[in-house]
Amino acid sequence: MPDDYPLLQYQFYLEITGVSVAQFTEVGGLNMEREVKQVPQGGVNDHIHSLPGRVKYSDITLKRGLTYSYDLWVWFQQGLYDLKVVRKDVSIFQLDKSGQCIRRWDVARAFPTKYTVSDLNATS
Asked: CA–CA separation, 97 vs 113, rounded Å?
């Protein structure tokens, strides 16, 4: 396939509980940050201990997706009226141009917080 074949741009795959449900061109928010607590040492005015604290995770965003499955939409709809949101394990795979997995991120007990469909335009 030529390098400009449109599906080659969708280099990120999303799996929900082991089932591939969508492809995306962009993934953001794959980061985490550890809080650092500054604790002054008693009796010593020139020294502060830096202690590790909680780890915070960013929201993951998947952009410009392509799917033939309704799994993401159904998952988002769960809990819409009864607030019983279903948490699932998901994996995000980064593929190279030959389709081989070069990176994988596993996220435990995730749940969708926003679902947006972009403007539909057949010419772009």
From this structure: 30
